[in-house]
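Recall that a protein's primary structure is simply its ordered list of amino acids. Everything else, from secondary elements to tertiary packing, is in principle encoded there. The following example makes that idea concrete.
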Amino acid sequence: MIGDSYRGVLLWTLGCWFAGLVCLTAQEAAEDASIPENQAPIRAQPAYPGAPGAVPTDTTIPKGEPTFATDRPMTPGMVGPGAIPPPPQAPMQPSTQEPKKPMGPTVSPMQSRGRLIQDMRPQRIPVYPDDPESAWWEINPSYAFARAQREQRPLMLLFTGVWNTQAMALSEEVFSTKSFNEYVKENLVICYLNYPRNQTDAPDSLRRLKDKFKVRGYPNVLIFNPNGEVEKGIRGYRPGRPIDYFNSLKAGCLPVVESIKVQKAQMMRAGFRDWSNYLGKEIFARFVRHDTQHVVLQDASGIEWIIKINDLAPEDQKLVESFPRVDKIEIEGEDRQ
């Protein structure tokens, strides 16, 4: 009797368990059927951020820093050739709206010729940003050569690349210093050209310059006289020896600087002098003529510059007014009443 009762209870328990299992399986099948085929079932999230398998809640993209990013003043290796290029952007779609009419001031033919008084130089980078009157790196070689000729100064042309460790060490250890900044302000026009690792990726204009002056390797510095002729070259850099390099650079520039001083002294006897505008931009030129509004100056190469008198520095304005005045200065392409 007892054995039969025990077997009956056991069979009843097994029957209930089996029935519950069938119901549970049917329920899960129904839930899976309600999930679209292209959507995975939702998984339970871990209880704390950062746990294995957790979905990050902060989607902010981390911001990296370029090589040699320090609290020191920016250099051509940091600001210019050392800067990280922005990510490529999708091409802009053409607008279907009518173009707006131009507004604001326009550049007259006279202003396009009077480059001395331009106050916008987007392609320039300060040597020592902490100095309000810092020297500037030009990154347009055409303008750099023209400026060296106009100001009668030597030009230092730097061939560099952000991928080159020696070039970046030179930028950080020499070209970011206050001493270099002060020397440039007194003596040089400087320009750097940033080359990619693969020569074929460089623009045609940069490849032509490198081939013209037979530049091999980076960093490479060439010193030019105001006429665009190479006077000295310095190749390479030994990291950790900035004083040696700076002394070598000054020694290479010294003969050119002294030669220019002699030439300028001779030209000053013929009426040449340094002129500047209210922004401090300079031109080594001689006075030709002026009217009530404009003055004509001739630089060392014989090019004439037409400049508004009011845009000159105060002492230069006084000098202009001390000369006899002509009725008017004819400006090509501009009607003047």
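Residues 272-321 form a domain with the SH3 type barrels. fold (CATH 2.30.30.700). Strands lie at 124-126, 136-138, 155-160, 189-194, 220-224, 230-235, 272-276, 282-290, 294-299, 304-308.
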